[in-house]
Design goal:
- The protein has 11 helices and 14 strands.
- It is an alpha/beta fold.
- The protein has 3 domains: 81 residues, Winged helix-like DNA-binding domain superfamily/Winged helix DNA-binding domain (Arc Repressor Mutant, subunit A, Orthogonal Bundle); 107 residues, D-Maltodextrin-Binding Protein, domain 2 (3-Layer(aba) Sandwich), CATH 3.40.190; 101 residues, Periplasmic binding protein-like II (D-Maltodextrin-Binding Protein, domain 2, 3-Layer(aba) Sandwich), CATH 3.40.190.
- The chain starts with a helix and ends with a strand.
- It comes from Roseovarius indicus.
Length: 310
């Protein structure tokens, strides 16, 4: 079994007709029939079912066709990689980020790539994790940052860091006896008037899950699926929130927000860099991934992102 056989078999399945596939490939129809018989003999199973409506794959045929698609993609990637050795990475890279991470990461990544890799067209998409998961799996974006690396099909993921979540309030509305910056107990945090995303949002699901494990329920008075709106409401003293320090660094530096880490338990979650299995992995994608890691490392080292690196 070789790559040519797999490519021909994939075309047969795609066309649903031996004659149509033969015309598309520019080969004789008997040659394709012989190729299928040879594959079936080699694998010891029937691959195609013939009917009046044409040809359809058996379960084994569907499995082989899936492998054929991936193998052809890998061969294309190998040709491109070898041909591009020594050339500068170039082309479009679609990169998805959740809002809380986009706030901290998108601008320094864009500036770094513009200076160091000017031929790369860096395209950032900000969306909730559920949308990003769907888009990276179907190839609408090349890579994404996600909080969960399960159920991603053939996409590959790499652990980036573990992020810590903090409690935040307006500068003139600190609700605890302990001063800002000192750890606060989760049991006290979830009794404050919280402004959080709705329950379809990954951050809210995480907070609810941790609270439930402690037999508690957060006192959520306002739901906003908009990070800027949550930040604005908290800064105006209209509630409190739980969020990544990287997402509110601007308001903290301006003195509009005060924060503290949360304990009992600590609220931390893992973050992964996920690459699409549908799109070709280009030199531009690899350079963008490397840039992402370098910028994340810098943000953590400088204390802008409260996290532990992989």
């Amino acid at each position: 079994m070789d790559s040519r056989q797999l490519r021909y078999f994939r075309q047969i399945v795609a066309h649903g007709s031996m004659s149509s596939a033969a015309r598309s490939l520019g080969v004789a129809q008997p040659s394709l029939s012989q190729l299928v018989r040879s594959l079936e003999t080699t694998l010891g199973t029937e691959l195609l079912v013939r009917s009046a409506r044409g040809i359809s794959p058996t379960e084994a045929g569907e499995r082989l066709e899936s492998y054929a698609v991936r193998i052809e993609r890998l061969l294309d990637d190998a040709r491109t990689d070898v041909a591009n050795i020594g050339s500068s990475p170039a082309g479009r890279v679609a990169f998805g980020m959740p809002p809380s991470i986009c706030m901290a990461l998108s601008i320094p990544m864009a500036e770094t790539l513009r200076l160091e890799q000017p031929e790369i067209q860096f395209c950032v998409t900000e969306a909730m994790s559920g949308h990003l998961r769907e888009w990276v799996m179907n190839g609408e974006i090349d890579m994404a940052i996600l909080y969960d690396n399960t159920g991603l099909g053939d996409c590959t993921s790499a652990f980036l860091l573990t992020e810590e979540l903090w409690f935040y309030s307006a500068a003139d509305d600190w609700p605890f006896d302990t001063p800002p910056g000192e750890p606060v107990d989760l049991r006290d945090v979830i009794t404050t008037f919280l402004v959080l995303p709705s329950k379809r949002h990954g951050l809210r699901k995480f907070i609810d899950r941790v609270a439930q494990a402690e037999s508690r329920k957060p006192l959520v008075t306002l739901e906003m699926d908009s990070l800027p709106q949550i930040k604005s409401l908290v800064a105006r003293g209209s509630g409190y929130t739980i969020i990544s320090p990287a997402a509110v660094i601007d308001l903290v530096e301006d003195g509009k927000l005060l924060g503290s880490p949360i304990r009992g338990p600590r609220l931390s979650r893992k973050i992964y860099l996920v690459r699409s299995a549908v799109n070709r992995i280009t030199a531009a994608c690899r350079a963008t991934e490397e840039c992402c890691r370098e910028v994340v490392d810098d943000l953590v080292t400088r204390g802008i992102w409260q996290a532990n690196l992989a």
